[in-house]
Amino acid sequence: MPNATAPRVVVVGSFNVDHVWHCDSLPRAGETRTGHYRTGPGGKGFNQATACVRSGAATVFVCALGDDEGGALARRLAAADGIDLRAQASEAPTGTAGIHVDAQGSNSIVIGPGANGTLSGEFVARQAQAVTGARIMLAQLESPADSVLEAMRLARASGVRTILNPAPANADSTRELLAVADVLTPNESEFAALLARHSSERIDAGEVASADDERLHHLCRTLLPRGTVVVTLGAAGAFVSHREDKCRGDEAAHYRVPAYEATVVDTTGAGDAFNGALATSLALSVERVFADHVRFAAHYAARSTEHEGAAAAMPLLAAPGAVASSRPAQDASPG
């Protein structure tokens, strides 16, 4: 467990109670399948906050919770992991998610926002002391866009580095929100959706991983001209694109980081594991080049796929950086 004096990561985002069905293949429209059921904690914000604290960073989590068993679960789990929970009380029920996972670990998800949709910019603003005392602000888009923007603005105004995970792909986003991100971390679907929404450029999500590096770099610069874009590519690893004059210690303005070996059980929280570990590494190891942070995140995400669940699958490290020596491969990675 990180000590209270460790550099902090503040995560603004969602908490969901996940309802998960494992089946041989994902159900098609009109189809009924047999599987086995479990329930547990999730939500991109909570998953990422759990990854942050378990990978070594003192973590503040800002969210909205209902007055119900789901909200009580969030409070118990945050306390158990040492997460500093800042929860806005909501009359709406705590968020939920319905998840199907197939035999290969692939998934499909339906979200019921509930309380997550009520998180206000005013409540976020009241957490200013936590935000300005952090090293990294991490946010996603399962919370209202204006609340996320408020958090990112607070951070930027205080010199706190910001990471925006623009997920899910169909979430609202604005150019203004992208502009306050130092690092943007879409997966293939989110990357294609952002380009379609915010530029004249187009790429099919299924073509992103195999696209030419120069083309991907151009698309990343179009999307976030002043920041760094890390596109997670599933089994193909990740693609990194920096502004040419701000490579964050890297020798190249763009490059790929390969995936890491894993015995995949469930990929549900892999992207969240990647984002949380990236935030931790950036907060704790400021002297490392950016490529090292991405490798740490990719390896941590690969380890998370070896267990069922989302937040529950986040590996607990004995020390920050403990997973960094594993061997790259092409069969597991954040997605």
UniProtKB/TrEMBL annotation:
Per the record, what are the reactions this protein catalyses? D-ribose + ATP = D-ribose 5-phosphate + ADP + H(+)
Identify the EC number(s).
Answer: 2.7.1.15
Instruction: Write out the annotated subcellular location.
Output: Cytoplasm
GO MF term list: ribokinase activity
**Highest taxon above the source species:** Bacteria
**Metal-binding as UniProt keyword:** yes
Chain positions recorded as K(+) binding sites:
D266, T268, S304, H307, G309
Q: Where does the UniProt entry say this protein principally localizes? A: cytoplasm
Q: Where is the Carbohydrate kinase PfkB domain?
A: 8-315
Q: Which CDD domains match?
A: ribokinase
Q: In which pathway does it act?
A: Carbohydrate metabolism; D-ribose degradation; D-ribose 5-phosphate from beta-D-ribopyranose: step 2/2
- What Pfam families does the record tag this protein with? PfkB (PF00294)
**UniProt keyword annotations, A-Z:** ATP-binding, Carbohydrate metabolism, Cytoplasm, Kinase, Magnesium, Metal-binding, Nucleotide-binding, Potassium, Transferase
**Coiled coil residues, start to end:** none
Record text on cofactor binding: Requires a divalent cation, most likely magnesium in vivo, as an electrophilic catalyst to aid phosphoryl group transfer. It is the chelate of the metal and the nucleotide that is the actual substrate.
Annotated residues that bind substrate are located at N16, V17, D18, G43, K44, G45, F46, N47, E142, D272
Activity regulation, in the record's words, is:
Activated by a monovalent cation that binds near, but not in, the active site. The most likely occupant of the site in vivo is potassium. Ion binding induces a conformational change that may alter substrate affinity.
Q: Does the keyword ATP-binding apply?
A: yes
Residues reported in the UniProt entry to bind ATP = N187, T232, L233, G234, A235, A236, G237, G271, D272
- Active site (catalytic residues): D272
* Cofactor dependency: Mg(2+)
The protein's role, per its UniProt record = Catalyzes the phosphorylation of ribose at O-5 in a reaction requiring ATP and magnesium. The resulting D-ribose-5-phosphate can then be used either for sythesis of nucleotides, histidine, and tryptophan, or as a component of the pentose phosphate pathway.
UniProt subunit comment: Homodimer.
Family membership noted in the UniProt record: Belongs to the carbohydrate kinase PfkB family. Ribokinase subfamily.
Name recorded for this polypeptide: Ribokinase
Native source organism of the sequence: Luteimonas kalidii
Starting at the broadest rank, the lineage of the source organism is: Bacteria, Pseudomonadati, Pseudomonadota, Gammaproteobacteria, Lysobacterales
